[in-house]
Amino acid sequence: MEKDIVKKVIEFLQLFMPQTLAKRIVCIVMIGAGIPNNQVTELTGVCDRSVRTLRKALGSGEIAGLFHVGGGGKRSKLADVEKEIIEEINRNDYHSLQQIADMALEKFKIKVSIDAIRRLLKKTASNA
Q1: Is residue 88 domain-shared with residue 122, that is, in the same domain?
Q2: pLDDT for 18-55, tens place per residue?
Q3: How many domains does the chain have?
Q4: Burial group, residue 106, by CB count within 10 angstroms (0-12, 13-18, 19+)
Q5: Span 11-20, mean pLDDT?
């Protein structure tokens, strides 16, 4: 019975947010209500480690990051050579994103899209 209610609450919240965030909110409410970790895990389907982490964060008042759902995105092909590519761009005169992509292929043997180069340059500009 309780599990059905929790499931319906999560389904309702999913109308407005990703499932992970909906489950996290329900966990936070349950933790706040004093429900033990094993019951929170059983009712929500969230793993025990995540429930313990949420309880610890709530107990210490570190709630700022609780509602952030990290992406499980793929690591950039350029991650290991970003610095070298930027140095190469600064040393030479590249006029287009395609020229930079061609240079990455030639010098670093990494085939990347123009969008990946654009993201790298945007990331570098925001860090400067």
Answers
A1: yes
A2: 888 899 999 999 999 999 999 999 999 999 999 999 99
A3: 2
A4: exposed
A5: 90
Distances (CA, A) of 127 to 17, 121, 123: 30, 10, 6
Domain of 24 in residue numbering reads as 2-60
pTM to 2 decimal places:
0.53
Q: Is residue 14 part of a domain?
A: yes
Position 40 in a domain: yes
Task: Say which residue, 8 or 1, is predicted with more confidence.
Answer: 8
DSSP reduced 3-state for 23: helix
Residue 16 falls inside a structural domain: yes
Question: How many angstroms separate the CA atoms of 112 and 65, rounded?
Answer: 32
What are the pLDDT digits (tens) for 63-103?
777 776 666 667 788 888 888 998 988 898 888 999 999 99
3-state secondary structure at position 15: coil
Side-chain-side CA neighbours of residue 94 (13 Å): 19
Would residue 69 count as lying in a domain? no
> Residue 53: how many CA atoms within 13 Å on its side-chain side?
9
